Amino acid sequence: MNPFILSFKVYGLNVHIHKHSAYQIILALNNSLTSIINNVPYTDIVGFVIRPQVPHACTILPDTTVCILNIEAYSRAGLQLRSLFADDQPVVILERPADVGRVFDPLRQQPPDQWPTSLSYLLTDERSIGKVDDRVRKLIDYIEQHYTLHTLTPQRLAEEVFLSPSRMAALFKAETGSSPSKYLLWTRLRHAIDMALTDRHKHLTEIAYETGFYDQAQFTKYMYEMMGVPPRALKQNSDLIQVLG
Fold first, then answer.
1. Largest Cα–Cα distance of the chain, in whole Å?
2. Which of 162, 209, 228, 229 is deepest in the core (most CB within 10 A)?
3. Same-domain pairing of 10 and 65
4. pTM of the model
């Protein structure tokens, strides 16, 4: 699993105009979808790859299953996606299944139901999950074990590996492509989203606090910034959304 990728399956759920700080890949695994991107309508397409901060919306029919991958912009996977775009190009439109194979070559011979797993694997740099400096591996393990703590600061992380905060941050970025603060945020969001979708009776304030956010307002702020939707909308549609990773 790449910690800088959040992936979902969505079943027949319309998404209103929004934007976010992550790269996003949207693929219809059956049928097609309709989207508005930067005020331009696209109909009967298989999907698209979109840059951060580009306004877009999707109409997904009730019998259509869509895979959505959100990728941290400054991770290695995000930098990999950046190469798909010309300088001023906001989106790569995938009109037909053949276009998916053209953009992501390993998917060329695969059926659509295998695309989500293959894409996550394709975008996973080995250094993101295994072959990293021992100190970075220690930091990753520490964050995974202590992400619920509100006192988990850069200073505390640096002390864990006997480095200055600036040296620790530089080492972490060199090994993973992103900062320890972003890693911590994505870890908290991943757990919070999973909790919001699987525990319908737990209030968002509880979810926020139990996953390391100060309060529901902070959880909502970062959720909207990274995903383009508030956690309340996610929770209200939990029967239509499945977390893949």
1. 55
2. 228
3. yes
4. 0.85
